[in-house]
Amino acid sequence: MARVTRRHFLRVTAGGAAGLGGTLALGRAPAVAQTRELTFLTVASFVPETDKELKRQFEEWGAKNKVKVRLDIIAHLQLQTKKASEVQSRSGHDLTALGPGLGDADLYYDYLADLNDVATDVAPKNGGWLNQDDYLIRGKWKLLPWWMPPFPMAVRTDLLEKIGEKNPDTWEDWLRVGKKGKAIGHPFGTALGHSADANVTMLSILWSYGGSYVAKDGRTTTINSKETRQALDFVKRLYTEAMDPEVLAWDDASNNRCLNAGKCIGIHNPISAYESAKKDKILVPGTQKEIAEVIDHINTPRGPVDRKATTGYWCVGIWNFSKNVDLAKDFLRYHFQPENLSRWVEAGHGFNMPFLSNLTRHAVYKSDKQYRFIPEVAKVSVPPSWPGPTTAASQQVLDLYIIPDMFAQHATGKMTADQAIAWAEKEMQEIYAGRKRRP
Amino acid sequence: MADEDVARLAARGDAETARLSDFLVRDTPVAYAFIAPAFFLLLFLVAYPFVLSLWFSLSDARVGETGNFIGLDNFARLLRSGIFLQTLQNSIVFTAAALTLKTVLGMALALLLFRLVRFKRLIRGAILLPFIVPTALSTLVWWWMFEPLYSVVNWTLKNLHLVNHDIPWLPDPYLAMFTVVLVNTWRGLPFFAITLLAGLVAIPRELYEAAESDGAGPVGRFWHVTVPLLKPVLAVVFLFSAIFTLADFNIVYVLTKGGPMNMTHLFATYSFALGLQSGQIGQGAAVSLFLFPILLAVVFVQLRLVRKSTDL
Amino acid sequence: MMSPARRLRPLFTLYLPVLPFVLFALFPLYFMLVTSLKKNAELYDVNSVPFLIKRGVTLGHYQLLSQDTLFWSWFVNSLIVSVAATVISVVIGILAAYPLARLRFPGGDSFGVAIFITYLVPPSLLFLPLSTVVNRLGLSDSLWALVVTYPTFLVPFCTWLLLGYFRTVPREIEECAMLDGCNRLQTLVRILLPVAVPGVICAALFAFTLSWNEFLYALVFVSPAELKTMTVGVFSELIRGDIYYWGGLMAGACIGSLPIVVAYVFFLDYYVSGLTAGAVK
After folding, report:
1. What would the pLDDT profile of C114-127 be if each residue is shown by its tens digit?
2. Are B108 and B100 in contact (CB under 8 A)?
3. Which residue of B34, B186, B311 is the best one to mutate when testing the C interface, meaning the one whose CB has the most C CBs within 10 A?
């Protein structure tokens, strides 16, 4: 009897497994009967209307071309995880956002479709790309640079007046402003922790002082220099005299909060803080005045050597394992048409600035006095790997926050300038050595 | 073996009892049939990814490419990296501190919960809540509680006049470590407390009564009755928690992202930054699996403890 | 006849020491609730009192969540996935725990260890090769992907728990049943399980909690907006760039915890006694 039951049991199990297998198999629609479908993965935009406009354009194009479209949105922090799994399993979406750096495209170079044709198609009608060479990965168009949030300086005009300062323009000016502000409880604030903002501002300072971390060849580390020491020195003074220690733990949203809560006198940030202050009608603490009215945005600061900034370079690419590469290219051409792109920029109040000349002169930047410097900032913005080309190694330097850590370690006194530089140099050399292209 | 055999055996009486119980314990084909679903699940969905992960750590794989075998190169490189050594130290400190807190506080709480009479269900339920709330979201709450500007912790301390300026919970490296340990303890304490409570409930009263009549006071009873009998439970919970605490990702990722200055990076977060964000899967895997041999031994010991007392 | 002093003793030696633990456990959750009901203006005002709502309670965050996002779809998705994964894992766990608890067979010990191997490789690494498998099975972008992959980390734990619990049930009743002519399966289902119900409920509760809280696989294997699970959905809608919609996030956390809280309140006693037997041996 036991034997019978065992056999019976095994039969049932096997039958169940077969049934499950069958169900799973059926879950996949037969390829023959499908309509054309296109999927696009992107990150949640700071301004929700941007996403809505993109969705509208996508669906409009889909209707015109009889293609079923799907726009999937995820938080930007999760994009890398998702991309890795799509590449690993060679399947996923057709179009994908890439970012926040161009480095992704070097990392996934072998999996991205060539976009030379689309790039040359969309440029002329839009006044040409801002800086074509910046966007080439190993000399090829593997992505279309899509948008960036330029980083001006957001400042509290009322507090500036209070401390008797006007139009700070150099980093030294800002240190002075921050010092005076800190004395009345309104320090300057810029992230020195593990966040994208920290990378942007620290690189900005480094370059403004003439330093750099990689050479033009994109392989030699150049962090060990006199200029770097000057920059290190400056940041140490900035940290101790003009900022509060909390900046060591700031994430990307912290500076927004600092400004909007009325604490910080100035932050290096895109217009997102101002926009949310306006939307939520945030008041200056202790008054009934809207804080948005006393915020102004001015140019990113200059250092002794140069005025340079960087930002997140958000791009869009097409996976070459997608079955709809041509369809995807077609949509990209559609989206990058001047009217569509213009509408999309407008939906985002200009927060998303495309890399095309005509769009940097979009009417939205003249609509509000606040945005008058944005095109200026865009002009001096370069990719984070400057002066070298974007590579996976330069991206890794950013991902591991080597630069902010170097500055923080010196600013807090944990390391001397020489030690900090030596540490950063060693870490970077390891990264670049590990990335040597395989023969 | 068919029913006639069973009947025959039963009929033979005591002399055959050994053979009978042997029959009841040995039933290999049935055993295999029963574990078959689990076995196949693990084979298809765990074995392959697991082996691939091991391979990653021994290769220079990047996302999407399998890479070439490079032996222990990844591990050697890690040992040369300042950030990794800091991570190693952080992980040890974090796990040791969190486990100690959870064990000591868990034990204390279990003892208290054991003696509750009124509001028993309510209090036990309340204690269990931190474990129930979705981790990703509860960690966000903690972050908001320590956020430099709005920190409710600082607000409370200042208003109770215990401090007069904001404490830099997250910016200061040592306080940051304290904070992540605190949050991990908050989340893991219920598991310890309730499991130890369950163990306490299982200890027969007679043993306590016997000890008391032997003249043992509360402390004596604790050391000579409670602790020895709780040892198996404690060992299992401790070892289980050790594995999960060591592999913690979410808390550090949300609160500090490994900062400030890499002082709170744990294996999982560093592996994420190295492997996933930078695409160096081989190195990321090496970080994740660095303690694998030790953990394997830990699991082995744990399993032994669970299957130990036995007629098996 | 107890003197008033003696009656009050437990208050000091028992309830007073328990209080800090209860406060410690509940405080963040209270804070979560309060934050979800505060108006934005008060929420972001540095000078406001964090614990209290002075400027009026608002259901705005809950409304935002309910109407402007697909929150309820996500909630239902999480429910479906968690229930399915729990049922599958508990069944497989029962089937796997029985031989480990009662039978001797070659490979028993190795199998026991093998089950736990999953826990040694963190999900943040495991998900990569797993995504290839999921894709080859054609399960990407469907809830099936989760229902199939969640048991990989649920089954080992359920097995361990049930293994321990089964061992506390005296073998005699099973042996009697078998001598009476029951086969293994009947013995398991008709004799052992009814007695082991607390352990099974305990395993089910744990499995449900772990499924409900799972984030990584849900993020990676499922993209379409209407199929997301609750936490993934809340994160992707309410964290935009460098802006966190705190009120909404907390509202999501509150509603999101409700099902499990309800389940636990009902089954708490089973939960504790299930752990008792499961852990002791």
Report:
1. 777 777 777 777 88
2. no
3. B34
Both A74 and A173 in one domain: the answer is: no
Residues A136, A55 share a domain: yes
Q: Is the ipTM here above 0.85?
A: no
Chain B, nearest residue to C93 by Cα: B38
SS (H, E, C) chain B: CCHHHHHHHHHHHHHHHHHHHHHHHECHHHHHHHHHHHHHHHHHHHHHHHHHHHHHHCECCECCECCCECCCHHHHHHHHCHHHHHHHHHHHHHHHHHHHHHHHHHHHHHHHHHHCCCCHHHHHHHHHHHHHCCHHHHHHHHHHHHCCCCCHHHHHHHHCCCCCCCCCCCCCHHHHHHHHHHHHHHHHHHHHHHHHHHHHHHCCHHHHHHHHHCCCCHHHHHHHHHHHHHHHHHHHHHHHHHHHHHCCCHHHHHHCCCCCCCCCCCHHHHHHHHHHHCCCHHHHHHHHCCCHHHHHHHHHHHHHHHHCCCCC
Same-domain status, A190 and A315: no
C-chain residues near A27 (CB < 8 A)? 138-139, 142, 144
Domain count for chain A: 2
Mean pLDDT by 10 residues, chain A (439 residues): 40 42 40 70 87 93 92 83 84 87 83 91 89 85 90 92 90 93 92 90 94 89 92 94 88 86 90 84 84 91 92 91 91 92 89 88 84 88 88 86 93 92 91 65
Contact (Cβ atoms closer than 8 angstroms) between residue A435 and residue A392:
yes
Residue B229: partners with Cβ closer than 8 Å, 6 or more residues away:
B199, B203, B207
Instruction: Judge whether A13 is closer than 8 Å to chain C, CB to CB.
Output: no
Q: Show which of residues 54-113 on chain C sit within 8 Å of chain A, judged by CB atoms.
A: none
- Model's pTM, two decimal places? 0.79
Instruction: Kindly state whether residues A101 and A163 are assigned to the same domain.
Output: no
Domains of chain C (ranges plus CATH)? 4-58 (no CATH), 68-280 (1.10.3720.10)
Residues A113 and A133 in one domain: yes
CATH number at residue A275: 3.40.190.10
Domain that holds residue A143: 35-149+311-379
Search chain B and give the residue with CA nearest A410: B261
